Amino acid sequence: MVKSVTVPKISATEPDWSREKPRRWWDPSRQLLKSIRAYQKWHAKGGIVAGLLRRINVLQHRLWSVVTGADIPIDCQLGGGLLLTHPNGVVIHPESSIGPNCLILQQVTVVKGVKIGGHVDIGAGAKILRQVTIGDHAKIGANAVVLCDVPAGATAVGVPARIITHSQSETQENSDLETPISQTAS
User: Fold this and answer.
1) Average pLDDT, integer, range 103-111
2) What DSSP element (H or E) covers 76?
3) What SS3 class is residue 138?
């Protein structure tokens, strides 16, 4: 028996903060993001108490950076809802910006000046090596080396990365607010 299930589309503008919430204490990638968010919150407030709390957040950030093996600066520009499923080897330059609800897998490198839009999925081992812009809902394939801009909704694969065009039906599905998925019920 096949039934249709409607899955809500992930927003490229509104962050889904539940994606970053630690599910348990030993959740290194989410704890790393939590320490970054807390530091940035106290940095914006200023004051003596905020200075003390920032120092505690720096220690937490250093701990979780070592545990995860990630190099994500404490002052980088990360949109809300970022998912780092395996943050090992992730390197993000502090002068790059990442939009809301992005997914970054292991061994990804993002260099200075890169602007990543909302809900971008970046595959394992991908390298973004020039100052480029990646549009909303784009996908970067595993081990791709991105040297040019990636338009919204496009997929970039290969070394050097090339853009894969979408068919008319895929483009129409991406513009819908919800995408139906067929599932087999048991």
Assistant:
1) 96
2) none
3) coil
**pTM exceeding 0.85:** no
Nearest residue to 29 via CA among 99, 96, 78: 78
Half-sphere exposure of 89 (CA within 13 A, CB side): 10
Q: Give the CATH number of domain 82-165.
A: 2.160.10.10
Work out the end-to-end distance of the chain between its first and last CA atoms, rounded to an integer number of angstroms.
8
Name residue, tokens 């483009």.
Answer: 171
Tokens of 71: 């190099």
What are the tens digits of pLDDT across the range 4-33? 565 568 888 899 999 999 999 899 999 999
- Determine contact, residues 42/93, Cβ cutoff 8 Å: no
Q: Where are the domains of the chain?
A: 24-68, 82-165
